[in-house]
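notes to self, project folder thing:

trying the whole complex as one job this time. last attempt i did each chain seperately and stitching them together was a nightmare. two parts in total, labels are on each line so i dont mix them up again. if this works i'll redo the older ones the same way
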Amino acid sequence: MAGALLACAGCSLHNTQNALDASGPQSQRIEGLWWLFLPIAAVVWVIVIAVMLWGAARKRSPREGMETRGGAEVVVRDEARDRRMTRIVAGGVIVTVVILFLMLVADFRVGQALTMAPGTQAVPIKVTGHQFWWEVQYPDSVPNKTVITANEIHIPVGVPVVMELTSLDVIHSFWVPSLTGKKDLLPGYRRSLWFRADTPGVYRGQCAEYCGLEHAKMSVLVIAQKPQDFEAWRAAQLDSATTPSDSLALRGKTVFMGTTCVMCHSISGTSAAATAGPDLTHVGSRRMIAANTLPNTDANLYAWISDPQRIKPGVLMPATKLDPRDMQALVAYLRHLK
Amino acid sequence: MCSRFADRAVRAGTAVIAIAALAACPRERRTFHDSPPAASVAAESAKSVRSDSGVSREGPYGDNAYALYQGKTLFAAFNCMGCHSHGGGGMGPPLMDSAWIYGYEPANIYATIANGRPNGMPSFKNRITPQQIWELVAYVRSMSGQGSKAARTSRNDEMEVRAAESQTTTEKPVLVTPPPTVNPPAQEGHP
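result (full assembly):
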């Protein structure tokens, strides 16, 4: 407990989504672009509105109007004023083109910087989108050292991470505003996104492409840690699930393996090996459940397993009707899976 | 002048009636909470034959496109493919042809999935929920072209030799006798 508090004291908690609270070089560039565009757009807006009001309010020139000459009505124009107006409009078009071109150059330079290759020391992470959760894999050249988790991405600070993004159902979009811009996850494609976090902290991200009923409750936590903490986390995630020693959690394991859970979820080190739902090997160590919809507590887990459709209507997990005692055992087992 | 006005009025009236008639088109309904499962497999599978429950002869989801697509997803997720392949059969019998061993009615298929059948079909009744079984029932029937053609899935997520269910020709289901039970060879060294 004290250790956890100390660890938290070392990191500032950015558990909000804020593109203007940039914590890495990529997001700083995007934030810089915002601060460049905002004053330009504000000034242009004020000028456009002022000119429009001036145009609506100004009086017709006394030299303009309809005149009867030789029995026919002719339009008389104020030639000098027309020439002046043409010059103003032409000047406005040139200024607009110049401003837009400068913004284009700034945007291009940011885009170029964002796609600069991150070097060979980058940490590879595979992120797969599902309705409505994120599958996260840390591949390793040794297959059994691959870490598989969900909805919570741990990254080391100061080291770039390269994400390989794909989707298994519909189009999703990965967006952690404090760290990086958006990148779509497309079924059948593998796309790359790289970024770096410079400050340890917890950064919230969100699916940014409408993907179905629970799109709004498909968020992700990126936890940036000191490299040694990240390695410790990674080593802990490699362990198989341990068999619980207390009888309640042990009964929960039997419930898990004997009911509907085992058809969709996997727990490494047990016979549960399905991949339709999130991997639960270390679910007890995650901060949130249901793609960061609820904090990971006993009561929330109980409510979620009993009736996920009440919390996320349209989610693919069905309600499980279990005896309350079995349900408590199941929750105890899941919380044991640290 | 008058006849042109009458002509316009008739046209406008027809358009209004056509738009009003569209409102009568049923919109597919999707429920988030399935009805509580019946106490037994027999009672649950009877849901498809009872006429007073408002459930069609096709089972609860035979004409529901969302449920059919979910059934298709679950068919892969629960590894039905392991034995039945993509409907072509393998270790288990094919599901896209006309021949049925244990009955082709939704109630029969429900009982097959829930209780299992001899020679290898496992029982899923405590493993998947009745709603999911009904979704699988609807999908399994759609593989041989049963049920509403409009609701059948029109796309395969994986590479498959056959066309998607919406382009499948409707087979006339027939019952066939089950294959003879193969007795496992006597193991040596066992009493």
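what i see at first glance: Residues 262 and 328 of chain A are 17 Å apart (CA to CA).
need to look closer tmrw
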